[in-house]
Amino acid sequence: FLADLREMAASEVDGGITIVIHSDGGTPDDAMRILDAIQMLKERGLAVHTIVTGKAYSMAAIIYCMGDYRTIYPNGLLMFHSSRYPELQDYDVTGAKLMDLYNELKVFDDRFFAIMSATGVPKELVEKSKTSDVYFSAEDVVRYGIAHSIEREIL
């Protein structure tokens, strides 16, 4: 998938692309590479339509939010949460490696919360997602402006 996005970013593709999402999420590292590729497509003038056909949890929800036009199937779900770095605070963080991981996850979270906020997620829900999982139905994501519409066509 990432190779396909990079190839499109490097080529002379006209118009736009549609990214269909049904995912439990993934790692912040993988998400950052996908987000960078999507940003490169946008910088080349391509419109990016993201659509959730089932679920977009965690990192998949952030990737969904990068679409210029976002739709969701009627029974679709989004879930946002932090990278769980607050849980690291429960440990004796004396090792440099553990502290580096904590700082890296905080940088990821700061970027992802900014993306969430830019799509219309209310500040109180962004804050809540820093400490717990926050789920949104298709109706919720349209009401909050995260999605533009509920998809009524089979893609």
Can you tag this structure with a few keywords?
alpha/beta, globular, 6-stranded mixed beta sheet, single chain, 155 residues, 7 helices, 6 strands, 46% helix
- Radius of gyration from CA coordinates: 16 Å
Q: What percent of residues are in strands?
A: 15-25%
Question: What characteristic shape results from the CA principal axes?
Answer: globular
* Average residue-wise pLDDT: 80
Largest sheet: 6 strands, mixed
Describe the overall structure.
- The protein has 155 residues and is of the alpha/beta class.
- It has helices at residues 2-10, 28-43, 59-65, 85-88, 96-118, 123-128, 138-143, and strands spanning 16-23, 47-57, 69-72, 77-80, 134-137, 149-150.
- Strands 1, 2, 3, 4, 5 and 6 form a six-stranded mixed beta sheet that branches.
- Strand 1, helix 2 and strand 2 (47-57) form a beta-alpha-beta unit.
- The chain is globular, with a radius of gyration of 16 Å.
The gist of it:
The chain is α/β, with parallel strands linked by helices.
Topology diagram in text:
Layout: H1 2-10, E1 16-23, H2 28-43, E2 47-57, H3 59-65, E3 69-72, E4 77-80, H4 85-88, H5 96-118, H6 123-128, E5 134-137, H7 138-143, E6 149-150
Parallel strand pairs: 1-2, 2-3, 2-4, 3-6
Antiparallel strand pairs: 4-5
Helix pairs in contact: 1-2, 2-3
